[in-house]
Amino acid sequence: MGSSFHHFILVILCSSCLLSNYLLLGGAAAASSSPKTRHFRWEVSYMFWSPDCLENVVLGINGQFPGPTIKAKAGDTVVVHLTNKLHTEGLVIHWHGIRQLDTPWADGTASISQCPINPEETFVYRFKVDKAGTYFYHGHYGMQRSAGLYGSLIVDVADGEKEPFHYDGEFNILLSDWWHKNVHEQEVGLSSKPLRWIGEPQSILLNGRGQFNCSLAAGLGNRSSSLCSLRADAQCAPPVLRVEPNKTYRLRIASTTALAALNIAIGDHKMILVEADGNYIKPVAVDNIDLYSGESYSVLFTTDQNPSKNYWISVSQRGRKPPLPPPGLTILNYLPNSPSVPTSALPQSPAWDDFTASKSFANKIVALLGSPKPPTRHDRRIFLLNSQSRINGFIKWSINNVSLVLPSTPYLGSLKHGLKGAFDDKSPPETFSSNYDINIPPVNPNGTQGSGVYTIQLNTTVDVILQNANALAANVSEIHPWHLHGHDFWVLGYGEGKYSEEKHGKQLNLKNPPLRNTVVIFPYGWTMIRFVADNPGVWAFHCHIEPHLHMGMGVIFAEAVDRVKNIPNEAIACGLTGKMLMHNYHG
């Protein structure tokens, strides 16, 4: 890389020295205009589309796939009038990374924060986007995310404020994976005896665009032999990034994959990580970036390479055994060049099973100087064992040997109104046996299903240790990205084997842990997070892999639901809450 790159990284690193003052003062300047209310009217329906050049059925919004990008500024209120045009199924949308302060009913989680929206009905989501960052939205009912119900949500800093880094322009890439088998068939297979696994995706999509059975990079080491011949206006044509030489660009990247762990690289260009899940991080230079489902990043890159050439942007699947789909590709097009296919080889990502590289990357991410620090002590500690179980012959994912099933009455309604019998009264286990051997299949593979909740006292500090283990098959332990609704949390550390306070307690990072809303646990390892239960509501905490959640891999946290106000009746008017509201109406 040329001297301009070294100058660039020095400027970025020095900017981090100043961020503590920036955060303490609440930004560079007072906001020059008041926050706005931004209205959107959406209709969700199935439609024919060709995400990877093969026509299929997708879930679209207003005839678009992916759905429309929401752009707002910190402090704005977003109002989405969402109409369900699906003929035979319910609908909700979750606003991933938005904490829903004072609006837990707008979190968009079926059976948790709201009832599914019935066909031909409209539900109005109203919430504040309180913090700038890179976010997205997606379906949270059944496996509708896998069917294409997702889009980007970008929150810029408020007027009069500035980011703690400079850039000349920005791009946004939303990553997803795509199957040719429809989601209803996938759901039936996951609920069958014996289990019919969904398999690996056929294509990796960038902003909903990929190529199946052909390659933009045929003949350049890509295993696909045929060269794609695409019109620029094809639905599967790559989203070309057009740049000018010697500029600095911000690239926002988010992963809404149903299964795939991904790695993104830009040929011959370094990237500087500056944001993770809507939180500023200490700038760090990387050659490639791991993205697990539910994560988002912002990177800066400088167009300081040969301006007569174009360069590959490559997205590879990692963390699962081959065969895997070919990389998702697009082009970094240096203007005034035409967007022609680069002649260089594809940038290299780590091998699919190079978990050493994955862990090294994860540990590079720390909070920026001046970011909020975690409380030094916890009030409560919950251990969550990630394993598989057999329940009546069906294979399920389970947490502390309990596989989550959601009730017909949303937790928010039943807890707010004190309804009995809506879900299991018994709280799930807070830990697992100290004798459990995480390195072998469970000695007793039989599990149970449950709908109980972890009730957490308001403003307490909670540690959660996510403990990975062997699945039912020998020598299998999978990657699991965990997402917490309603909060950010501090990532205190990752480790190998079974967590031990004596062995690992002193390794925890209490100095500058990053704030995230999604975190990964590696095979046969543990991850510890810490959060403050300061947001009244009912919040899901779950594996963000769609089929794993469908198979029960999640838990429910309830915080001070009695303090939640102004829940719209239509959010909870189903199940037992619906009967109660109807009884009160008829008085």
UniProtKB/TrEMBL annotation:
GO cellular component: extracellular region; plasmodesma
Main location: secreted
Family to which the UniProt record says this protein belongs: Belongs to the multicopper oxidase family.
InterPro entries: Cu-oxidase-like_N, Cu-oxidase_2nd, Cu-oxidase_C, Cu-oxidase_fam, Cu_oxidase_CS, Cu_oxidase_Cu_BS, Cupredoxin, CuRO_1_AAO
Entry EC number(s): 1.10.3.3
Enzyme class, spelled out: oxidoreductase
Assembly mode: Dimer.
GO MF, one example: copper ion binding
One Pfam assignment: Cu-oxidase_3
Cofactor(s) this protein cannot do without: Cu cation
Listed name of the protein: L-ascorbate oxidase
Start and end residues of each Plastocyanin-like domain: 44-156, 171-334, 444-560
Gene3D superfamilies: Cupredoxins - blue copper proteins
Keywords: Copper, Disulfide bond, Metal-binding, Oxidoreductase, Repeat, Secreted, Signal
Cell compartments where the protein resides: Secreted
Signal peptide: 1-20
Catalytic activity, as annotated: 4 L-ascorbate + O2 = 4 monodehydro-L-ascorbate radical + 2 H2O
